[in-house]
Known about the structure:
The complex is a heterodimer. By secondary structure, chain A is an alpha/beta fold. Chain A has a domain at about 10-100 and about 175-255: 3-Layer(aba) Sandwich (Rossmann fold), CATH 3.40.50. Chain A contains 10 helices and 10 strands. Chain A has helices spanning about 50-55, 85-95, 110-120, 125-135, 140-145, 155-170, 185-200, 215-220, 235-240, 245-255, and strands spanning about 10-20, 25-35, 40-45, 65-75, 80, 95, 175-180, 205-210, 220-225, 230-235. In chain A, strands 6-7-8-3-9-10 form a 6-stranded mixed beta sheet, sandwiched between helices. In chain A, strands 2-1-4-5 form a 4-stranded antiparallel beta sheet, with helices on one face. In chain A, a hairpin with a 4-residue loop joins strand 1 (about 10-20) and strand 2. The radius of gyration of chain A is 18 Å and the shape is globular. By secondary structure, chain B is mostly helical. Helix content of chain B is about 75%, strand content about 0%. In chain B, strand 1 (about 95) and strand 2 (about 100) form a beta hairpin. The radius of gyration of chain B is 28 Å and the shape is globular. Chain B folds into 2 domains: about 5-80; about 100-335, MetI-like fold. Chain B is built from 14 helices and 2 strands; from the N terminus they run ααααββαααααααααα. In chain B, helix 8 packs antiparallel against helix 11 (about 235-250) and helix 13 crosses helix 14 (about 295-335). Classes of the chains: A alpha/beta, B mainly alpha. The interface of A and B includes residues 96 and 104 of A.
Amino acid sequence: xxxxxxxxxxxxxxxxxxxxxxxxxxxxxxxxxxxxxxxxxxxxxxxxxxxxxxxxxxxxxxxxxxxxxxxxxxxxxxxxxxxxxxxxxxxxxxxxxxxxxxxxxxxxxxxxxxxxxxxxxxxxxxxxxxxxxxxxxxxxxxxxxxxxxxxxxxxxxxxxxxxxxxxxxxxxxxxxxxxxxxxxxxxxxxxxxxxxxxxxxxxxxxxxxxxxxxxxxxxxxxxxxxxxxxxxxxxxxxxxxxxxxxxxxxxxxxxxxx
Amino acid sequence: xxxxxxxxxxxxxxxxxxxxxxxxxxxxxxxxxxxxxxxxxxxxxxxxxxxxxxxxxxxxxxxxxxxxxxxxxxxxxxxxxxxxxxxxxxxxxxxxxxxxxxxxxxxxxxxxxxxxxxxxxxxxxxxxxxxxxxxxxxxxxxxxxxxxxxxxxxxxxxxxxxxxxxxxxxxxxxxxxxxxxxxxxxxxxxxxxxxxxxxxxxxxxxxxxxxxxxxxxxxxxxxxxxxxxxxxxxxxxxxxxxxxxxxxxxxxxxxxxxxxxxxxxxxxxxxxxxxxxxxxxxxxxxxxxxxxxxxxxxxxxxxxxxxxxxxxxxxxxxxxxxxxxxxxxxxxxxxx
Lengths: 258, 336
């Protein structure tokens, strides 16, 4: 591990165990931290439990058939897995963007303010301001500012994905989680999304499951390598990608398997 | 090559040397076998026969539908020449006196069908949402087969339950002279249409992409918001289809309505008339067809009633089909 002073902890994961009810163990004994204003990368071969971990963080897994879960996830020191934790509030604090862009069947404008509308915001000025801010932060404003009332389906794949980022940002979350946000995008769109992330980390905490090792190495401030439900190695990105401590990590990032 | 479906060509094959040698490449195993073509030939003949048989069955189905329609026309159209239109459009169905007013029958059918649809739709949609979204998985396993069994109950049994249980209940409960009313028919027809509505709507809800749900939840949606703002709008066309299919089932239903609606051919005028007896087109045909002289005016008018029913059902089915068609087209567009 590196000797630099560590950033502030946003989320602390303590001995997290998750098992789906079909018997497959999906996460075992995960302990790690998510740092504030950093790009925290979770990577590894598919089926490693990265997505499961993301979905545990904002409790989207509540609907899945999880039969057993142990451990704690502390968001600013509070255990979000507690039974009486306000899940709706949690999901507004931890925005998530999925692998495939999911624009809702409505206009660009409506897409961005959807979460606010759900929360009962009606003030037109506030909504307008939010749309502009979120789209600017999502690096989409310049491309769509003159056609906000167009259907979100008219956007390209990369634009749709940035729209989804903007939709999360509209709720002013504290953490933005992205699950392979560039897996369906061309290199230029991917570059734009990655650039956006670099800007966003100043204001937000970012957790991302990248879609390739190269991407992980490009953007990671902190990186965690997952293999079949185990956290193999977790370190500063620079350290982990240049001098991994575990043989399996080295094999994976050098392309010996994966 | 040798697999071409042409029996004549096939029969000549064994005597003819294969000029290209391509056949041998295709079947290297049987290369040195003298009659390697004969089993292949039998298969081809079988293929041809099967193809023809399937063709004949398919065409005969179409022919049958056409014939039924022609038969209806043949027997029904004379009614419009034998009975003046003013009589047919009249408000009194009293065949013995030569009064053949179709209005009460059409009104009775429409009233019961629309009433049944209005009852079945909210109940069916709610049940489907419960099964698909709210019930725990073990509840789903129990509920789905039960709904399907409901679809299999013969209409005469439902009519029986109607006469013995539902009608007396309404008579005493609502304090009306008879329990055999339009309302009784609506309730029982709604019950019959329910399985169709439930299974169609549930299928549609199942096809709403999981990503939509996740996207909604991730924005902080409650369960009710997910249902009302994502699932129901996404499944709107499916719900309309379910309604149309339910209506199609209800309007053609004969046995149950004949047993429970009282069969008095009167036109409902006030809303309270749903608690009076009515008579539907189907019940009229079923009840009277056995007793009329073949070829008489009454006989032809009954066929005209059938013709009217046929047209109405056809229009309803057409509407349902066009909605389904629109949905598939939209689904394709979304996938591309």
